[in-house]
Design brief:
about 375 residues, alpha+beta, five-stranded antiparallel beta sheet, about 20% strand, elongated
Length: about 375
């Protein structure tokens, strides 16, 4: 009767090979090759410590230990072959083993930090999903696309905010930017989004929604904190309401042209009304089939390239406008990353609203008049 194979014994050579880092092995092999060709004795043997030191930056403790032991064995063989003095060879091997042990410790600490960072990312992503809930591709009469990038790539969450909800008073949305960074900015963003979602359902007037957010921030923010935001709504067919509180003007796409929606009366950011005494104004715009509205944060328009030039968002939107909001937003985001060289230095959010052209209602032609068989046939009786 044949015995079942023992998977632990069968696979340990494969696991050992997988644990061995390639580049450190190449370095050890290069030292061996140079020593064999040049026959230079102890000159090149100290470079064997480079192997475990480099392995510590990319591999786990097991890989570092394997490279260190391999280097020690190779060093001992080459030292004996080259008739190296015993005391010098002992110093080289001791140094190699010390570097190996230090590399194992560094590798273990690095692995622990990576696990902690992975846990932080997981928590941050859960917080982001709770704060910035995914927006469906279709909301009410609109097609929508959103793209958000946090400058803190390790945490994947920042101080920009957005929300879009369908309410009894029409579709309403907000895009904003919290002053500051880190957890305080995330907390403020969560506060604004939470109040907006609640007020958007309760308040018939869009200015009342903004006032609710303002009162909440006045109770919870410091004197130097504020939030710039654009709050917009679509209360009835063909009409768009916009309230701009110190934020960058939205971009309106109409008839292949891009026009900034500058506020009729500038208003201070949310949280600063009590200091300025100014109140925001409601701006009403026509919004017909085929029109698009792009809301964004200053992380987009203030992104600079190596020549310190700002990203031209209006020009980019004119180049990439299409009937598919997701395609447009993706193209803008990719172009933005290419403009800055691949990494943003501030949070950036894009929200594109598209009112698709209504499909024409087919005209149903009346069928040709036909003769009733019963009326054409002679009656009986």
């Amino acid at each position: 009767m044949s015995q079942a194979p023992h998977h632990g014994h069968d696979h340990w050579p494969r696991r050992l090979v997988a644990a061995l880092p390639l580049l450190p092995i190449v370095i050890v092999s290069a030292v061996v090759l140079v020593d064999l060709i040049g026959g230079s004795g102890m000159t090149w043997l100290p470079l064997l410590a480079t192997g475990p030191a480099l392995a510590a930056t990319t591999n786990g403790p097991r890989g570092v230990l394997c490279v260190g032991l391999l280097g020690a064995a190779v060093g001992a063989v080459l030292g004996i072959r080259d008739d190296a003095p015993d005391d010098q060879l002992a110093v080289v091997l001791a140094a190699l083993l010390a570097v190996t042990l230090a590399g194992c410790l560094a590798s273990a600490l690095r692995g622990r930090r990576e696990r902690v960072l992975a846990a932080v990312r997981s928590v941050a992503e859960a917080a982001q999903h709770a704060l910035l809930q995914p927006i469906p591709a279709t909301v009410g009469p609109f097609r929508v696309a959103v793209r958000y990038s946090a400058a803190a790539a390790e945490a994947r969450i920042g101080g920009d905010l957005y929300a879009l909800v369908s309410t009894p008073y029409g579709v309403r949305m907000i895009v904003g930017d919290v002053r500051g960074k880190g957890l305080p900015a995330v907390g403020t963003a969560a506060l604004v989004v939470g109040v907006f979602r609640e007020a958007a359902y309760d308040e018939p007037d869009l200015l009342a929604v903004v006032a609710r957010i303002e009162r909440s921030l006045a109770r919870n923010l410091g004197s130097d904190d504020f939030v710039t935001a654009v709050v917009a709504g679509y209360p009835r067919e063909g009409q768009l309401e916009v309230v701009n509180c110190g934020h960058a003007p939205p971009l309106l796409v109409r008839d292949s042209g891009v026009v900034p929606v500058d506020p009729d009366r500038p208003a201070p950011p949310l949280g600063l009304r009590t200091l300025s005494g100014e109140t925001p104004a409601l701006q009403v715009l026509p919004f017909a089939d085929g029109d698009q509205l792009l809301l964004y944060t200053d992380g987009v328009t203030e992104a600079r390239n190596h020549a310190r030039e700002f990203y031209p968002l209006a020009d980019g939107l004119a180049r990439h406008t299409s009937d598919e909001p997701s395609r447009t937003v993706t193209a803008l985001h990719d172009e933005l990353l290419a403009h800055v060289g691949g990494r943003l230095h501030d949070d950036a959010a894009l929200l594109l609203l598209h009112k698709p052209t209504a499909a024409p209602v087919p005209v149903l032609h009346a069928p040709a008049e036909s003769h009733d068989m019963d009326s054409c046939s002679p009656r009986i009786g």
